[in-house]
From TrEMBL:
Pathway: Bacterial outer membrane biogenesis; LPS O-antigen biosynthesis. Belongs to the NAD(P)-dependent epimerase/dehydratase family. Residues 18-278 form the NAD-dependent epimerase/dehydratase domain. This is NAD(P)-dependent oxidoreductase. Pfam families: Epimerase (PF01370).
Length: 359
C-alpha cells in the first residue's frame, strides 16, 4: 500500500459524502478544498465563532493592517470554498438539534471532527469554552453517528501532538503513552479516549490524526510560524526562548492535508481503527524557523529570552506508520515550504498595507 499514487485515490472518494465539523478554520477549509478537488461531496458545519470575520472586525487593539490582512485571508477562504463547490452550514455543533439537522440534510458517509479552540494559550484562558467546543461537539457527533454506522463508515478525529506531553527521547511514535499537560492537550486526549470507546462499544470505524506545528496560507491562529513572519514585517522582535533551541516538527498544511486525504480514502470500513502522526517527520529548532524569516526579511529583529518553564519538551514525531499504511510522504521542509509561506505572507501583508492606507 505504501506505493499507492496520490492521484489514484480519487475514485475511492468520488462516492463519499464527507462532513467536516468545525471545518471553516485553517485546517478544515484546506482539507475541504482538496477533498472536493478529489471528487468527494463535502459539507462544512461551523458556527463561525473562532477566527471569524466578525471577531476580527471588532478587535479594537488590532492594527488596521493586521485587521485588513486577516479579513482578506478569511474572505479568500470563503471564496475558494464557494468556487470549489463546498457546502457550508452556519450551525452550532454544541447544539444537538442544530447538528442533527445538518446530518439529516447531508446524510454523510464520513465525518471529520475538528471543532476546537486552535490555541493552547486561548484554551488556558477559557477552559470552559475549550471543553464545550472540543468535547460537547464530539459527544453530539458520536451520538448522531452511533445509530448510522451502516451508512457512516468512518469518523476522523483531529487530535494534536501535544497529547504526548514532554518527549522522553528525540522522537515519539503512536505507541508512546500520552502524558498531556494543560487544558488543550487534555481535551484532545479526552476526545481520543471517547472516540475509541465508541468504536469498541458501537462499532464505529475511527481514525485519530496527530499533527504538529502547522503553518500555511490563510492561517490567522497566531501559531509561532505566523507570528514570526508577521513580527518581522511589523518591526517586533522574534523571541528565541533559550536561544531558540526548542525543537518542533514543523508541518506545511499541504502535507497534513495529503495525509488526511489518504487516511480517508484508504480506510477499510467500520472494523478499522488507527492513529497516525501526520507531520514532516523531522523536528527543527525555533532558531531554524527564525533563520528562514531573516533570509526573507533581513531587518527582522531576533531577541533571546529565558526558556519558559511550562513549555513542553518536543521533538520529531515518527511518521513510519503513516508511510507504511497510507503511503504518506511529506514534501515540504522549512527551506522550501516555510519559505514559500513566508513569501506569500509578505505579498499579502503589503497588499493589506495598501488597502488600509486607502481606507
Amino acid at each position: 500500500m505504501s506505493h499507492i499514487p496520490y492521484d489514484s485515490l480519487g475514485p475511492k472518494l468520488a462516492d463519499q459524502r464527507i462532513m467536516l465539523i468545525g471545518g471553516a478554520g485553517f485546517i478544515g477549509h484546506n482539507l475541504a478544498l482538496e477533498l472536493a478537488r478529489m471528487g468527494a461531496t463535502v459539507m462544512i458545519v461551523d458556527n463561525l465563532m473562532v477566527n471569524s470575520l466578525i471577531e476580527n472586525s471588532f478587535v479594537e487593539e488590532q492594527d488596521p493592517v493586521q485587521r485588513t490582512a486577516y479579513r482578506n485571508f478569511l474572505n479568500e477562504r470563503f471564496s475558494l470554498l464557494r468556487s470549489g463547490h463546498v457546502q457550508l452550514r452556519n450551525a452550532d455543533a454544541r447544539l444537538l438539534a442544530d447538528l442533527g439537522r445538518c446530518f439529516e440534510e447531508f446524510d454523510p458517509t464520513k465525518v471529520v471532527h475538528m471543532a476546537a479552540i486552535a490555541s493552547a494559550v486561548d484554551a488556558k484562558k477559557e477552559p470552559g469554552l475549550a471543553f464545550d467546543l472540543q468535547l460537547i461537539t464530539l459527544r453530539n457527533t458520536l451520538e448522531l453517528v452511533r445509530p448510522k454506522t451502516d451508512r457512516i463508515n468512518q469518523v476522523m478525529f483531529m487530535s494534536s501532538s501535544t497529547v504526548y506531553g514532554d518527549f522522553e527521547g528525540d522522537s515519539v511514535d503512536e505507541r508512546a503513552f500520552p502524558r498531556p499537560e494543560g487544558i488543550y492537550a487534555n481535551a484532545k486526549f479526552m476526545g481520543e479516549r471517547l472516540i475509541r470507546t465508541y468504536r469498541t462499544q458501537y462499532g464505529l470505524g475511527t481514525t485519530v490524526i496527530r499533527p504538529s506545528a502547522l503553518y500555511g496560507e490563510r492561517c490567522i491562529s497566531r501559531r509561532v510560524s505566523q507570528m514570526f513572519i508577521e513580527n518581522a514585517l511589523t518591526g517586533k522582535p522574534l523571541l528565541l526562548e533559550g536561544g531558540g533551541d526548542g525543537r518542533l516538527d514543523f508541518t506545511y498544511i499541504r502535507d497534513l492535508v495529503q495525509g488526511q486525504v489518504r487516511a480517508l480514502a484508504l480506510h477499510d470500513g467500520p472494523d478499522a481503527s488507527n492513529t497516525f502522526n501526520l507531520t514532516f517527520g523531522n523536528a527543527r529548532t525555533i532558531a531554524d524557523l527564525a533563520a528562514v524569516v531573516k533570509s526573507i526579511v533581513p531587518e527582522a529583529i531576533l531577541e533571546e529570552r529565558p526558556r519558559a518553564v511550562d513549555k513542553p519538551v518536543r521533538g520529531t514525531l515518527s511518521i513510519e506508520r503513516a508511510q507504511s499504511v497510507l503511503g504518506f510522504e511529506p514534501e515540504y521542509g522549512l527551506e522550501d515550504g516555510y519559505r514559500q509561506y513566508c513569501e506569500w505572507y509578505v505579498d499579502a501583508w503589503r497588499r493589506a498595507q495598501r488597502e488600509a492606507n486607502l481606507a
